Amino acid sequence: MTTIYISLGSNIERERHIRAGLDALHAEFGPLAVSRVFESEAVGFNGRPFYNLVVAARTNMPLASVCQRLRAMEFANGREPDAKKFAPRTLDLDLLLYGDLVCEEPVALPRGEILTNAFVLWPLAELAPELCHPVDGRPFGELWLAYDKASQRLNPIPFHWEACELQHH
Questions:
Q1: Structural contact between residues 124 and 54, judged by C-beta atoms closer than 8 angstroms
Q2: Which of 74, 76, 86, 163 has the greatest number of beta carbons closer than 10 A?
Q3: Residue range 42-52, pLDDT digits in tens
Q4: Cβ within 8 Å of residue 84, ≥6 positions away
Q5: Which residues pair with 157 in a beta bridge?
Q6: Number of domains making up the chain
Q7: What does the pLDDT read at residue 87?
Q8: CA-based R_g, the chain, Å
Q9: At 47, is the secondary structure helix, strand, or coil?
Q10: Which domain holds residue 66?
C-alpha cells in the first residue's frame, strides 16, 4: 500500500464541490486523513476565493491509474477538459505525493506547488508534519515554519463533512 496526498480546491460552489470531492475520494480510496479547510485568495488570476485542503489515502493502484481517477472525478464535477491553468474551478484535485516517488511522468512528483503555495503546504504540514519532502529532504512541518506567511493570505474555516468532523484548530 502506498500513501498518497491529494490537494482539493474549489472556488465555484465551494462547499458543494469540496464535499463532492471528499465523497468521491472516500468512495475510491476508503478512509481518508483530512486537513482543515482553508480559504485562500486566487493565485495567478483575479477570481473568487478558494476553499483548499489536503487529504491522505492509501492505495494499491498504480500511479497512472490514480491520475486517471482524479481527472475523472474533476470531470464528474463539471471541470472542462480544456480548462486553463489559472482559472476558476469547480473541483481541482492535484496529486501532491505518491509515497516518496520522484518522477516527471505521468505527472510531476512531488508537485511543485508544495513549496510555493501556502494553501498546499499548510494543510500538508498539518497532516504530515514529520514526513520529509522527497527532494528537499526537510519535514513538511519545518517547511511550513520557514514559509513566508505574509506572501499569501490563508484562513482556516469551519467545515463539516459527513464522513468525519474536520479539525478546527
A1: yes
A2: 74
A3: 776 677 899 99
A4: none
A5: 37
A6: 1
A7: 64
A8: 15
A9: coil
A10: 2-112
Q: Percent of the chain at pLDDT above 70?
A: 90
pLDDT of 41 reads: 82
Residue 77: per-residue pLDDT? 87
Write the burial class of residue 146 (CB in 10 Å: 0-12 exposed, 13-18 middle, 19+ buried): exposed
Nine-digit cell string for 166: 474536520
Residues 6+ apart with CB under 8 A from 152: 40, 41, 43, 117, 118, 119
CATH for 46: 3.30.70.560
Query: Hey, what amino acid is at 73?
Result: M
- Long-range contacts from 23-26, C-beta under 8 angstroms, 24+ separation: 23/162, 23/163, 24/73, 24/76, 24/77, 25/55, 25/57, 25/73, 25/93, 26/163
| Per-residue H/E/C for 66-105 | HHHHHHHHHHHCCCCCCCCCCCCCCCEEEEEEECCCCECC
